[in-house]
Amino acid sequence: MLQKIVRSTIIDAPIERVWAVLRDFNSHDQWHDAVETSRIEGGERSDQVGCVRSFTLRDGNRIREQLLTLSDTEHKSTYCIVEATVPLQRYVATVALKPVTDGSRTFWHWESTFATPPGRERELREMVAHDVYETGFENLRATNSQLAEAGGNNGILARTVDGGANWFTVGVTTPADIRDASFPSQNTGFALDTAGGVFKTVNGGSSWSNLDTGASANPKALLALDANRILLVGPKGLRISTNGGNSFKTVKSKAVKGKPLDDIEVASGALIAFGNKQIAVSKDKGKTWKKVKGPKKQELNDVDFLGASKGYALADTGELFKTSNGGDKWKVVKALGTDAGTGISFSSASSGYVSVDRFGNQSAGYVFRTKDGGKTWQPQLIAPDSVEVRDEHATGFAISPFTDEAGFFATTTGGQAGDKSKLTLDVAKKKSSKAQKKVKVLGKLSPPEGGEQIVVSSRKSADSNWKNDTLTAASNGKFTAKFKVKKNKELFVVAQWSGDDNRAGTGTKVLTLTR
Length: 515
Prior knowledge:
Blueprint: E1 3-11, H1 15-22, H2 28-31, E2 35-40, E3 52-57, E4 62-71, E5 76-84, E6 89-100, E7 105-115, H3 121-144, E8 148-151, E9 156-160, E10 168-171, E11 178-182, E12 189-193, E13 198-201, E14 209-211, E15 221-224, E16 230-233, E17 238-241, E18 249-250, E19 263-267, E20 270-274, E21 279-282, E22 290-291, E23 300-305, E24 311-315, E25 320-323, E26 331-332, E27 341-346, E28 352-359, E29 362-370, E30 378-383, E31 388-392, E32 395-399, E33 408-411, E34 422-427, E35 438-446, E36 453-460, E37 467-472, E38 478-484, E39 490-499, E40 504-507, E41 511-514
Antiparallel strand pairs: 1-7, 2-3, 3-4, 4-5, 5-6, 6-7, 8-9, 9-10, 11-12, 12-13, 13-14, 15-16, 16-17, 17-18, 19-20, 20-21, 21-22, 23-24, 24-25, 25-26, 27-28, 28-29, 29-30, 31-32, 32-33, 34-35, 35-38, 36-37, 36-39, 39-40, 39-41
């Protein structure tokens, strides 16, 4: 009688990133703890249907498996055991992925059927279910949130494979600075330098080969969806390779062809390419593209989508916008409290970061974090210099200019440090019925110690610029501010505090003042 095992999980990473790992039939020794070494027999490609992987487990068992089917469209593969010292007979397994639309996450389904020697059914079912599938889920989940790269000077590329606990550098074979890098798996990666050179490694950066892109101008960014599919961005349009970088061709879709583009990102089940006046979406891995409307009369500094519909855009004015219908309508995120934003990164519609180079009267590398879709923002001081921020679900990364190891930061707690604190704002009750041009606002920080520097920010409804004032909280945590509000006009006010050694920072919801 055939046994059947079915397991599934959610991975906090886009489907393209998970599939880039799983479609490589020889990648499991990089992410599964049970696998010691693995190789593809006969020198065949690891995504070639019919190829055989021969691998050794850490317990000494040896297995040969054959890839039966592979579909990049369905994100699905099947394979079988050809020969093994483990007593699994007629073993056939299927891996299938589906995008989770609520955030850039992936549903992973893994099942198999097999026969066992009499009396060992339960033992081998538990081995496959726990030691293979459930352990594999946890191993890949950790791997996907722990890979990050940062370009540096003179061909130096910094990498982490353990969520930022340790960083190491690899040397790309170029004297120019590294502008961008993309690693679809731990060993296979691509790098772009400021001179327009594109380089490939298949051994984690130990050695590199120079790729001929055929581009007449220097690209601004690159993205590797997997070991074979690579996209080059800008300065005008896109170029794509489907053979591991051996050749590139221009993407001919009108939405991107000849358009000024700066960067590209993976969203759940989609790709987003953008420039300061352009946004385009692809749902077929970059083959065809469709124009996305941006916020009206805005030039863009950064864009981050969570799929084809939900996304955020940071304008060069510092205003943050969000959409839930693919760009048909954009709304201003009123509670940000700053126009000093330099970049954005979101892992879901509710959770994300904005990198900021100024908070109140202090210029430094801050990030603002939200857990409620932008209703409130928590300021966090990261470094003396401005930082780039990346929200990779389980891990957040902040990277300052490439100088030394102090420039690399990571968090698995959303940057939360210390006890929880709370800020509130309320309009003071008027003492007379006379018309008043100024509105008095009462604020409170709790728990208080006294002397905390609270940044209170205000912005007119028709203006994109925030005015910041730093107020000192009294020993009871209270502070007061007054604002001039024009008749029949709105004024938005927020208060924020970056925390101290014992208490975490916090921010208020936006308070709308009218008169």
